[in-house]
Amino acid sequence: MGFASGASSGVASGVARAEDLVDLVHPLIGTGGGAIGYGRTMPVVTPPFGMTGWVAQTRQSGHPGLSYYDRDRSISGFVGTHQAALWMGDYGDVVIMPESGAARSGLAERALPFSHRDEEARPDYYRVVMGTGGQAIRAEMTAAAHSALFRFVFPAGAARRVMVEASRPGVAGGVSVDEAKGEIAGYNPRRSDADLGPLTLPRFRGYFVVQFSQPAKMATYPATPAPDRSTGAFATFDAGTDAVEVRVGTSFISVEQARENLRREIPGWDFETLRRTLHDAWREKLDRIAVEGLSGEQRHIFYTALYHALLYPRSLSEYGRYYSAFDDQVHAGESYTDFATWDVFRAEFSLLTLVAPERIGGMVQALLQDYQQGGWMPKWPNPSYTNIMIGTHADSLVAEAIGKGFAGFDRALAWEAVRKDATVPPDGDATNDWRDRKPGTPYEARGGLSYALRLGYVPADRTAESASSTLDDAYDDWCVAQVARAVGRQADYEQFLRRSEDYRKLFNPATRFMQARNLDGSWADPDTGWTEGGKWVYTFDVLHDVGGLSGLMGGRAALAGRLDRYFDGNYNWHSNEPSHHVPYLYDFVGQPWKTQERVREIMRTEYADRVSGLDGDDDCGQMSAWYVFSALGFYPVNPASGTYMIGSPLVSRARVRMADGRVFTVVADHNTADNRYIRSATLDGAALSAPMVTYRDMMDGRTLHFVMGAKPSRWGASWVAPGVR
């Protein structure tokens, strides 16, 4: 089932053009549950990496809970959101709602019914008709990085007003009106995840300025402040005013900065020009990858996935300044937030090194600034420390950026930050079990590190999620080793390389599974100590040393057999990230045709052009990045290594345009749904025997050429991965 809405961009003059990739994006993919799953996405209107996203509010967000869900049938406003995922809360949001008739500020009483038949969702534009019959209101919106422009058309004969909700009940927000300027301004101090980290941030506020194209009478509400009422204001327009445009600027610095952001981005009331600017920003990014040979449905999935991947991390910069949620101060420079590092280190960040390389230096520097201002690089800033998920996978992002030669950040500071992650236990480590989302705790960093430094593993009877943490820490130690080598610290490189082998301490030779251990060295319950997975998934969680894992299993034939049991027994859990690399492990054990089979099957069954088209949380673009890479024919099993293991390309041809103009090309002759196996491969005309390609190959603009067939072949089977026997 495809989408009718968003299939054409003809509503804006000058936007629709031949082969316009923005037209292929269906932002409603992943917004609802169904046969495949619930991707937990929202159809946000914002530029790539925009600070504030704008979305129809069909329900009030929470954690868990997003502002938009496909099965809802009413809209209670349009929210300027900063929420990155279902399990993360929103912060500093503002809501705009057009109304006719009596003034209504309550969430349920102001909601208007709508139908998806009257909705169009695109990256650059959203349109919906709310209400019924002669009382329907038409709403349109487009946006810039910190601002949005709305166009509301009201029914005839009724009162016309726009409600601005500064903060929801129970939150001490602020709002003021200035009729002479035609402006409502205010702030929202709510951070719904504030209890998940150690910082109180008394100065944190999401500021906003709302301006109107028509004169209005304005009043704040409620008349008497009450904890069970939201805080906001109404702008009421003359009876003859059928249409009103509303522009909103947002900021984390001040009302004045919100006004300045609005002045820079939306100086007038030209809706079509603003939409065209946003459209062109998306087209420039989507044009980085051109594909051929995909079906119509596959093209929609591919470019929607690329749209999702380009939303995060979210920029915090406001024209040369940014608010830091790590020291509660405003600084000069550039910053980003909403790094879901446990998720995105696997493929999302690696994809950004290809399609948004101009951002990578600033993203890494943002993590290092967080380290300077808060004491640690964050796991998942939202916008501050949240203690959600495990490991210190910012180490992987730093190592990947350094390994790929990116600049724009301080390498000495990077070494200092990753070394602290690997050597300094968090405060209270010996007395805190670091349960997920445990409120009021210090920053978690590597929970259980004080034990791991002595034992080589995190004990299950002292620290939650201990087995997953031990395995993740081993990979992060490998990444720390790469940073050490890059800055000339050879002894440290060797030390952390040795430590990266500590995953071996969890391998139980009797069962050939990874298993948590207790403080005294005894084996814990096999089902204990895991994070969003279990023993089947995490036994393969050795991204940096597949050769070592093969040795533990008894050789590559034994590892291949265990992979067969994993897939044939339906243990693969693609809806969660720890499984994402596993189908590519057949490449390491001389059976690449099985990688080709498994990857094609996952692309076919776990993704679709429908609201239930993502089987699991997209988690800031990771689920989507997996599809983009796999459709191109390769995937970064060890992302910080700069190598990509080859799967089975879905495309017949793809061109990945690099920042310097060079083009990395993938060609797959005779590629069809049945011809999923690679018969032969060349790289710039030379025979390619190893089922892998490198970042350097891409940067050099080389051509990867496959010949596909209907039956498994021995291509790539003779390659022996380092350490595999």
UniProtKB/TrEMBL annotation:
GO biological process, one term: glycoprotein catabolic process
Gene Ontology molecular functions: carbohydrate binding; peptide-N4-(N-acetyl-beta-glucosaminyl)asparagine amidase activity
Ranges where the Glycosyl hydrolase family 92 N-terminal domain occurs: 24-251
Domain Glycosyl hydrolase family per the UniProt entry, residue ranges: 257-709
Keyword terms, alphabetized: Hydrolase
GO (cellular component) term, any one: cytosol
Entry-linked PANTHER family: PEPTIDE N-GLYCANASE PNGASE -RELATED (PTHR12143), PUTATIVE-RELATED (PTHR12143:SF43)
This protein's name: Glycoside hydrolase family 92 protein
Phylogenetic classification of the source organism: Bacteria, Pseudomonadati, Pseudomonadota, Alphaproteobacteria, Acetobacterales
